[in-house]
Predict the structure.
Amino acid sequence: MNSLLLCLTLQGIIPNSTCDGMEAVLPAARLHRLDPHLILAVAIHESRWTPTARNGSHCGLMQTGTKFVPETCQELMKPETAIWAGARALRYWIDHKGKNRAIACYRKGNKCFAPAYEKAVLATVKVLQERSEHLIRMKVWLPKQS
């Protein structure tokens, strides 16, 4: 898997997406032991992959709350920073609340109750995984051989 494949996977869900920050997804996923499709799915649901998205103190692609991370909202508007902060927050919730509740906790903090959101994110993860597998089988993401 590479950034180009992830970008094409994302563009199947959000056509004309810029894929800004995509180069941070795989290293952040590896470091924090996350499925890269989970990072994409959270960003899709949080901001529709909009780097400048802001909702109160929640900023950037991953809409990470500034009260939960050391980064400022301005820093989180940088796609790579947002990906790293969001992945770090997901890992935190997985480690502290378990994999099954981590997505809801990411959305709601310590309340950890957002069943519709959790269901939607997990469904998006599945769609993204299937799309990546399809692109790999079709080899459409490989450079054309001359």
The chain has one domain: 3-138.
